[in-house]
Structure formats: structure tokens, C-alpha cells
Design a protein that fits this description.
about 30% strand; 6 strands; 4 helices; 6-stranded mixed sheet
Length: about 90
């Protein structure tokens, strides 16, 4: 869904926002990663970065896929440990 010029909402496990500039984009949260299969719907060829707003499974489960594609990932400094040791967090 188009929100504004170059700004789109991709509904997924959690909302993912696509911020497009030309044929590149930055994502706000990533959900399951499904958005990566629909980039063409938003006129995007390449995602450069994912900006995570917070650590929750529904919004972050696609991060491994983004990392495998070489997409830079940015997380809140206060939650860096949660993202870095996600298995330890959810097992605790």
C-alpha cells in the first residue's frame, strides 16, 4: 500500500515499511522477510539497509535472510544484545 511518494507499507507478520529512492530502498522492520519477494511491486531492485525499531520475533524473523543478501542491518543500541544473542534471549 502506498502511504506517500516513495513510502509503502508491506503487511506481513508485522508491518514493514519500504522507503524508496530511485530503484533502491531502505526497510523499516522486516517481518518474515516476505517483502524481499515483492520488491518489484514497489519499484525496487535493491535494498541497502534494514532499520529495526525494536526486538520482537514478528518484526525481526527475516533478518537472517537480509544479512545473507548483504543488506546492512541497524538496531537500537539499547537492544543490540537482544539481536546478537536472540537464541539465548528466547531460551531464557
Amino acid at each position: 500500500m502506498r502511504i506517500a511518494e516513495g513510502v509503502f507499507l508491506h503487511a506481513d507478520a508485522s508491518n514493514c515499511y519500504v522507503l524508496r529512492d530511485g530503484r533502491q530502498a531502505v526497510l523499516i522492520d522486516i517481518g518474515s522477510g516476505d517483502v524481499l519477494d515483492h520488491l518489484g511491486d514497489y519499484g525496487v531492485d535493491h535494498v541497502t539497509d534494514v532499520l529495526m525499531t525494536h526486538h520482537h520475533r514478528d518484526g525481526a524473523q527475516g533478518l537472517a535472510r537480509a544479512a545473507a543478501l548483504g543488506i546492512r542491518i541497524h538496531v537500537p543500541p539499547s537492544e543490540r544484545d537482544l539481536f546478537a544473542a536472540v537464541d539465548d534471549h528466547w531460551q531464557g
